[in-house]
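Sharing a chain and its predicted structure for anyone who wants a worked example. Both blocks are below, sequence first, tokens second.
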Amino acid sequence: MCLAIPGKILKIKGDVAEIDFNGIRKDVNIAMVDVEIGDFVMVHAGFAIEKMDREWVRDIQGYLGKK
């Protein structure tokens, strides 16, 4: 089973975005999704695989005990 986690896009440079995962920032390839700064994406293995709805992000963060 694979685990993908949501993160918020902070900066974009080409096909790479700096994404915040509750205080941990990572560079992620965003070539497979159409996104902009402030969007949330689901990330797996260094790639953004899906743009996420903000309500869904809040639900997931609630399950994980994050605000």
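Comments welcome. The mean pLDDT is 90.
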